[in-house]
Design goal:
elongated, Formyl_trans_C, alpha+beta, transferase, protein biosynthesis, Rossmann fold
Length: 323
C-alpha cells in the first residue's frame, strides 16, 4: 500500500502537534481533514483564540472540524464523509470508540514518554520532576483505556542535567515528528506488531497526571536534588512556586522559581531560611544543603535573574520561604 494514498485525519490542539502535521503535508501524505478544539475566548478582551493546530491547518489549506461534542451525530457524519483510512492523534481529547475505530487502519497516538511509563496528561513534566535521565516518544494504537493501547514504535531521548520542560518539549516535539511519519509508512507496509500493555504490574509504573497549582508548591524540607528537579520539571510552565514572608508581617508574597542549583552542605538552618550577599546570590536552606535560585518572579513583578532582582531587593535576608 502506498503510504501517500492513505486518507489521514489528523487530530490535535497545541504547538506540540503542529510540526507533525506540517511534516505529513510536506511529505506528500494525504491529510484529508484536521480535527481540533473549538475557538475559545482568551485574554483581557476575551477575543476568540484559535488552537495552534487550527492556525497551521488553515495555512496549509486543510479542512478543519471543531466539534464541541465528539459523539455528536453531526461530527460523526462529518468524519464519515472524510472516509478516513487512518487517524493520528497528538495531544487531543479522549476519543469515543465511534471515532477512533472508524478508520479502517485504526487510529494511533503520539505520546511524549516511553510507554507504559508516564501515562497521563503531563509526561514531560513528571519525567524531569522524578529525576529521570531518559525519556522518549511512543506511537500506540488507541483503545478503550487512556494510553494503554498496543505500542507500535518508540524513540529514546536522553534528559540532560540542564534540561527543563521547555527544552525537553522541543526535543520530543522534533523527535515525535519523525516517529509519526515512520509509523504511517510502517502501517502502510503492514510492518507493525503492536506490543500490548496488558499484564503489566501497575505498581512498577510512574504516572503523569495533570498538574494543578497546588502541586507546584515547593517543599523546602525535601532533599535538594529533588527540589532542583522539581523546579526544572515545572519550568517555564506552570512554574514551581513558594510563599515568602518576613517575621511579624501579616501577609506573605508568592514567588515563582524558574531555575535553581543544589549545593550539598550541612548548615543547621531551618528549612526555608534565606541567605544572600545582597548582590550576587540568594540561597534557601533545604534538608541537605542549599537551593540557589537562578531566576525568580515575585508576584506582580517581572521574571528576573537573581543578580538583577537583588538590585532592587535590599532586605532579602529578612525573608523566609514557607515550608
Amino acid at each position: 500500500m502506498n503510504p501517500k494514498e492513505i486518507r489521514i485525519v489528523f487530530m490535535g490542539t497545541p504547538e506540540f502537534a503542529v510540526p507533525s502535521l506540517r511534516a505529513l503535508v510536506a511529505g506528500g501524505y494525504n491529510v484529508v481533514g484536521v480535527v481540533t478544539t473549538p475557538d475559545k475566548p482568551a485574554g483581557r478582551g476575551q477575543k476568540l483564540h484559535q488552537s495552534e493546530v487550527k492556525i497551521a491547518a488553515l495555512e496549509l489549506g486543510l479542512p478543519v472540524l471543531q466539534p464541541e461534542k465528539l459523539k455528536a451525530p453531526e461530527f460523526v457524519e462529518a468524519m464519515q464523509a472524510l472516509r478516513p483510512d487512518l487517524g493520528i492523534v497528538i495531544a487531543f481529547r479522549m476519543l469515543p470508540e465511534v471515532i477512533w475505530a472508524m478508520p479502517r487502519l485504526g487510529t494511533f497516538n503520539l505520546h511524549a514518554s516511553l510507554l507504559p511509563q508516564y501515562r497521563g496528561a503531563a509526561p514531560i513534566n513528571w519525567a524531569i520532576i522524578n529525576g529521570e535521565t531518559e525519556t522518549g516518544v511512543t506511537t500506540f494504537l488507541l483503545n478503550h483505556e487512556i494510553d494503554k493501547g498496543g505500542i507500535i514504535d518508540q524513540i529514546r531521548v536522553p534528559i540532560l542535567p540542564e534540561d527543563n520542560v521547555g527544552t525537553l518539549y522541543d526535543k520530543l516535539m522534533t523527535t515525535g515528528t519523525a516517529l509519526v511519519t515512520s509509523t504511517v509508512d510502517r502501517i502502510a507496509a503492514g510492518d507493525i506488531r503492536p506490543v500490548e500493555q496488558q499484564h503489566i504490574d501497575e505498581s512498577t509504573l510512574r504516572p503523569a497526571p495533570k498538574i494543578f497549582k497546588e502541586d507546584c508548591r515547593i517543599d523546602w524540607t525535601l532533599p535538594g536534588r529533588r527540589i532542583a528537579d522539581f523546579i526544572r520539571g515545572l519550568s517555564p510552565y506552570p512554574a514551581a512556586w513558594t510563599e515568602m514572608f518576613r517575621e511579624g508581617d501579616e501577609e506573605s508574597q508568592s514567588a515563582k522559581l524558574f531555575s535553581a542549583a543544589f549545593e550539598a552542605a550541612a548548615h543547621g538552618q531551618p528549612c526555608g531560611t534565606v541567605e544572600s550577599d545582597g548582590r550576587t546570590f540568594i540561597r534557601v536552606a533545604c534538608a541537605d544543603g542549599w537551593i540557589v535560585p537562578g531566576e525568580l518572579q515575585i508576584a506582580g513583578k517581572k521574571r528576573l535573574p537573581v543578580r538583577d532582582l537583588l538590585l532592587g531587593w535590599r532586605d532579602v535576608s529578612q525573608y523566609k520561604f514557607r515550608k
